[in-house]
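Notes from hallway chat w/ T.B., transcribed later so I don't forget. T.B. wanted the structure written out for a chain they're using in a teaching module, and asked if we could keep both sequence and structure tokens in one place. Agreed to drop them here.
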Amino acid sequence: MDINDPQNTEVLFCSELSGITGKLNELKRALPELIAEYPEVLAECGGDYSKADAAVLERGLCTEIELLKLYTKVFGLEVPDEDALPLPERYPGISNEYLSENGMVPASWDGDTMQVYVSNPYQLARNIYVVERQLKKSMSFILVRRAWLERIITSVYKESEEPAVLEGDSEDALRSMAGEARIVRMVNDIFSRAIELSASDIHVEPGEDHVVVRCRVDGVLTEILSTPIRDFPAIASRIKLIAGLNIAESRLPQDGRTTFQLGRTELDMRVSTIPILTGESIVLRLLNKASVAYDLRALGLSQAMLNDFNELIQIPHGMILVVGPTGSGKTTTLYSVINQLNDSKRKIITVEDPVEYQLPGLCQMQVNSQIGVDFASGLRSIVRQDPDVILVGEIRDRETADIAINAALTGHLVLSTLHTNDAVGAVTRLIDMNVEGFLVASALFGVMSQRLVRKVCTVCNGSGKDVLSGGRCRNCNGSGFRGRTGIYEFLRVNDELREAISHNQPSSVLEKIAVKNGMKTLLEDGRDKVAQGITTAEELLRSTAEG
């Protein structure tokens, strides 16, 4: 009997399936608890719960993992660790189209039994009928997410086919591909896995044969998905539609920003595309508003350094700089300062490129070079707005530095960033911009240099393994690290340093003076965190070597 023929797979609700139908009735009673806020979805689907599940997912009202947890709870099962599930071999005589339509994949089998991965509990009766009546095997099942199941089907049952050719790459064809349920689920799954991993960025990279998706987790890229290259036009179009980009344009770089609702999480995303030889490189910066707390106490500063820094930011005027390489957390530190200073008594204005997070109570201005609004022109306008505190996203040139220093000398607290490797390097960087040493000495009150290091996972203590099962630690995804903290070097400018800066002393002299006056270096602060078990010596070396 050909099980790929739908006429041969009609469900026979035999008495042996009554247990399954009873569970499905329980599921129908439990499901409204999950989508109670969206009763219109079930109504639109005519009371069909399996269709309502799909609609809820495609609209981003919940995640697949939330649905899976509900399914497994009703059936008395545990949520599986997908990475630990074995990759099955191909079962003969079953097509990938059949498996995808029925949401099932044979996982393992022998002469009498078969274990099956199943994504749709509403089709369990049908699946049991196929396995037990047609394949003559006793069935057991594991409930998994549909997106994971489809990755398995693609990997194990993929057909040798050429990439789809679109007629003229028309916008209508791209839009149609981007709206396919499988592609919508795949992209939502990418977002969902990025959230689970607490990723900061998603990289979609087409190669010759496959599209690889990687997430940056705690500063390190890790691969989460590989799919055939034929899927790339649809994936790229889906992402572009979400970001409001031109889906028919693949020859020019594009940038966009959007807010995307995925379950109970609201993602603010910046999307960037550039043309490459194999298609387009797409990078999404994820700005999860719910996961960000701008609090100086949470940044990893030692208590002595925190007290000193808190005292410094209360000055009424002057310049404070935060320095370090790209991705070292400078913006988070500045926003934490602003958040602490933000009250009804102060006028705070920022000029940023781009504005990453919108904070209430601030006047935030975005750089737009296309219309001539850069840091210098924006800052020049800001000083005429009677501000108390000014945040400049970055000092990149002499003009911006001059205006910022002048603002600091005329009654404003100016906060900004520079790309230098250490605290004293900020002084020499400003002087290299041809800012007079005596002006730097007069305006600059403090410099915070920083890096980010990964923190040892507190669940597995850095082993990457689950204590009970010996498998992969779910908290850190097997990496041994979870989250990041900062290591810092805080230079507070005193009279001795001002004198040295005014006389254009080299950075080596400035550092000796700073250390003599109590400055702890980045490495010293990092070694303290290693001694406390917060991070490792290898991670400290990696972080400081990258800087």
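Follow-up for T.B.: The first helix runs from residue 18 to 34. Might be a good example for the class.
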